[in-house]
Amino acid sequence: MIFDFKGTYNLNYLIKICQLFDIDIENKSPFSLNAFVVENAKNISNGQRQKIGLARALLKKPKLLIMDEATCHLDNNVEDKLYDFFKNNCQSLTIINVIHNKSLLNYFTKVLVVDKGRIEFFGDISEAYVKSKVFGKLFS
């Protein structure tokens, strides 16, 4: 199952999350709330796996969300919708996100640059372009 419901959830919030990730709430398509996901999720695409993982995480309304290239298999439209959702619905959520996609930088206020296992820079993204050699090479 896409969601293994335990506990109490706000129905409107669940619907919002399903709409965000194009999860069919009316069970008219293979990617619906009642869809059966086989072991190792071999019957769904990598993008659908990422959508399910993110939807499950958001449904729990965490205070901290750590993601490592968690949207790399999503198209740009869904990715933008996700980050807009974070901005508009998750103000108390802290996100630590490993990314290599420059367009996603607009959604963040701070950047931590790690080079060879050491922190090379931490601060505002605008300062990173000037003060971080590594950041400048990656995102200029």
TrEMBL record:
<protein>
    <submittedName>
        <fullName>ATP-binding cassette domain-containing protein</fullName>
    </submittedName>
</protein>
<dbReference type="InterPro" id="IPR039421">
    <property type="entry name" value="Type_1_exporter"/>
</dbReference>
<dbReference type="GO" id="GO:0005524">
    <property type="term" value="F:ATP binding"/>
</dbReference>
<dbReference type="InterPro" id="IPR027417">
    <property type="entry name" value="P-loop_NTPase"/>
</dbReference>
<dbReference type="Pfam" id="PF00005">
    <property type="entry name" value="ABC_tran"/>
</dbReference>
<keyword id="KW-0547">Nucleotide-binding</keyword>
<feature type="domain" description="ABC transporter">
    <location>
        <begin position="36"/>
        <end position="71"/>
    </location>
</feature>
<dbReference type="InterPro" id="IPR003439">
    <property type="entry name" value="ABC_transporter-like_ATP-bd"/>
</dbReference>
<keyword id="KW-0067">ATP-binding</keyword>
<dbReference type="GO" id="GO:0016887">
    <property type="term" value="F:ATP hydrolysis activity"/>
</dbReference>
